[in-house]
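quick one, 304 residues, struct below
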Amino acid sequence: LTHTPQRSPERTHTTPHTHVADLQVETVRQLEDLHLTPVEHQTANTIKPTVDANVIPNRPHLSIQLEKLALPTFDGDITKFQQFWCSFELAVHNDDSIDLSMKYLYLQSLLTGDAKVVLQDLEPSQDNYYHLVRALKKRYDCPRKNRALLHQALQEVHIASDVASDMRSTWFRISGILHSLKRYEDLNKVLSIIDLVRSKFPLVIQEKLNDAEFQRGTDFDLQQVMVHLDNIISSREKFELSLPRFATSISSREHSVERQRPRSRSSPRPRPRSRSPSVTYDPAKCCFCDSSSHSSRRCDQTMR
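---
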């Protein structure tokens, strides 16, 4: 007989508890290893690479290639000098990175027609650039003459028709002239200019403008006249945009009524017959030989 060693009841009883305890300890240890402090946990989950404001992020940069701008030329028209010089001054004259010689050559290339007169005694050089600028301004930047030409242009603006597009073109033309005149004088209270601006629009528009003044109780100055004219023309433009659809609907309704209209049962009127020349017939004469000695039945000529 072999003796089989028997485990003591105490050892057999404690082994399962020890095994469970070891598992719990191991689990707790693993959880502690995974568990971080609140600061560490927040750092691990929320920390992100800081982006320096001075560092441009590495992102695809979209660029648009703009076309080269061509500056306007100047042909000696005094009314266009201010617009020409403002464009050249903004693009070239105020740019310190451009050499004065290049500025001279570029300004020279933009002068055409009568404006080339100022180039007769100047040679391309750095020193002559400012001489060229002064010569241009002395010859063409004449406030009194330019002011007179602008007043003449305002007088020559054509009277607009009742069409909204024509009235809008006239309004823009007058607005541009008045904007240029503001550099020389204040016309906001000048009655002759206000009446002149009014006269460039149809009577129906002037009547609406007078109604607006009457409702307000005071006369409009020049700026208020231009604002109210703009509103009246805008209302007219909106009306004309809806007019084709309205006319089309009216035309379609008239066509529908015309198709539904019953036809008249009355007989058509007979066509007038053309009148033949009147022929007199005498039964006593022969219709063949025109003889009165015999009748038509006994005429011998019919037998020949």
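Residues 78-141 form one domain.
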